[in-house]
Every structure is written in C-alpha cells, then in structure tokens.
Amino acid sequence: MTVFYDSNRPDAFVGGGSLDSVSYKASSRGVIADLASGHAYKLLSILPLGDSITYGVIASSSDTESGGYRKFMLERLDALNVKIDFVGSLSNGPASMQDRDHEGHRSWTLNQLNGIDDDIVAATKADAALLIAGTNDSATDSVPTMLQDLRNLLLSLSSSDPALTVFVGSLPPIRVGQQSQARADRVDAYNDAMPGLISELAAQGHKVIFVDMRDLTPDDITAPPLDSGLHPTAEGYAKIASYWIDALEQHFGLDGTGIGSDRDTFTSIENLTGSSFADQLGGNEGANVLDGLAGDDVLEGRGGSDQLIGGVGADTLVGGAGADVYYVDNAGDKTIEEANGGIDETHAYIDWTLADNVENLFLRSAANLAGKGNGLANAMVGNGGANTLEGLGGGDQLDGRGGSDRLIGGPGADILTGGTGNDSFVFA
Hints:
This protein is α/β, with parallel strands linked by helices.
C-alpha cells in the first residue's frame, strides 16, 4: 500500500499495487476528486468583495436577499458542471444557494473595505477576489478621490497577499431620478478612468485585472419606488455574473471539470482522503475507502463494497452497489443507499437512525447512545454505554453489549441480547 500526498501543483499519481491512496490532507483548498474519471482539481477559492451590490440587493425596500450576481454565477457554473468555492465572513442569499459566503457590506465605502482587507485576506486565503466598490463613495466624493481610495485598497490587498488576483469591476450605472445626474456622471467618469489605474498597477507587478461592465445600462438598475436607483435588477445581476465568469475563464481557464490549472490524474488508485475543506470525493467500480477528513463533504462510493468516512463536518455519504460501510459523527451527516445494493452498515458515534436500504448499525465510542432501525431486518449492536436500541419493522437482532441497555424489538420476529449490565427488553 502506497500513500501519495498532494503537492499543491498538478500531479500524476500512479499506483503500483492494491490499496494505493492519494491524500489531500495538506491542501489549502477543497478538492473534487473522482477515481472513475481519473482526475481531481482544487476548488478555486473566490472572495466576492464590495458593498450592497456584492451583498445582492435588488430593491432596498423589499428584495435584499436575492444573492445577486453570486446566485447567477453558481447557477451558470453548475450547468457546466463546474464548482467554485465562495469565501468570506458574511453569508446570505436564498436557501437554494449551496454557497452563500461573501464579503459584501451594505453601504460601505472603499475606505471602509480598506480597513478590514488584511484580516479578510488572511482568514479566507482566497485565490481571487471579485471587487465592485465605489457606488457609496460617489454620493459625496470627487472622481480623483474615489480613484485614490481605489488605488489604496488595491495596493493594500496586494500587500496582504501578493498571490491574490483581484478582478476589479466597473460600477453599474446610476439611474437618474431619485439620484442626481451629477452623481451618475461621477460614476461614469470613475468607470472610464479605472482601466488606466488598473493598467498602471498591473505594470508594477500587482495582480489586478479590470473587468469592463460598462455595457450595463440604467434599464439594468431597479427604479424607484422599489429602489433608490443604485442596485441592479435580477437581469442586471445575471449580466454581472456573466462578466465575472468570462473574466475568470480568460484568466484561469475553464473546462468541463473546473476553473484553474491545478489538476491531478489517477492511475490504479483505490482510495482518497480529502482536505480540511468541503470536498467531493468519488469512487469507481472497485472497493474504495473515501475519507472526507474535515469540512462538509460529499462522498460517493459507486460500485464495489466501499468505506465512506465523513469525518468532521456535516457530510453526505452515498453508497451505491456493493456492501458499503458508513462512518458518521455529526447530526448533519446523511447516508444514501440504493435498494438491493448489498448488506450495508453504519458505524455511528452519535445517536443514529438507519437510512432506507441500510441493514446494520454499530454504535461506537463509550457514550450513551440511541440507535433506531428501519423497516428491514436490522442487526444493531451497542457499545459499552447505556444504549437504547429500537428495531422497528422486520426481524431484528439487537445486541446491547456493555452497559444497562433498553432494547425495543418492534413488530417482527426479533432477537434481543442484553449483554452485561441491567438491561430491559420491550417486545411488540
């Protein structure tokens, strides 16, 4: 058995025998690794940075939780089977958004963002930032002042992490009405001056890229009385999402598996260990061991008799064909098993109810745990603590082992074994 370790650069892992494994334990990003397709890539970590436009306000009086361009980015990338990882200290958007992290502070100015950027960059370790900021400054500041504040922010971001690529978007236009023509003109002038500033900083070696969104029109901005004429409509946010994705594709590359060039390949690899982040690990038709480690992971065993170890975090474990073994330790864990997919078992370090199509349950650790079966003929085994085991339907076999256990058979021809301790038995 050989264990290969990710090097944070493109690797070709070639196993020589059986039970070879690749570990992403030291990875600085989440990973999507698939043994069936024979490849893996690290999730591009993206920091959406700015004000209420990054937050996703459509109408300041009513629609503030749309997720804005972030929602449309995820939808478009998901349609391409491409995954990214939004990062940031804030989280909002509709419940349907799988990744709601961002750093969009409503009503904030460029200088306010400059006051937190060191901490945010250090905490998120992002690969790229998507910056739209300056709309709030345009209420009072001159164009030269806005440009100087933008320069200061970009230099500070670059100083915080020279490897961070900052994509700087031009501002959406101001819709005149509740807002003055003078303010709209300031935003237009600011946008027109931005390419020169970005080019100057890029020539000095800073990783900054201008993203031209000046094709947006006032029709893409929500009109009064729903809004003050500052925030994009849903259609406007969809356009902004397209600008961002096009820029990411041009700079990092985009294909059917992801964004970026940090990709690995697998040959004769049986097992995978994930990272400390949210990973997606997939097996093949053989017997695989998939260990999510930390983070909210998705593990899919597919064919073969697999071991799926969620690790720390709320994990989703999908077995498939074969006699699969699930390890769960978080109330947010989920196990999904197909019908007639072998005799499967769950090893639980917490109170647990067997999912559909999983036959057997083993309670682990020394804690006083409760286990509940399903409609199948279940075998359920306790630990050294005082357990409650409930078989429900089917002809179940319940074994309390150590501790003073309570064993509940339910309907069906059940066999209840107490073990050591003062045990109680309940028959239907």
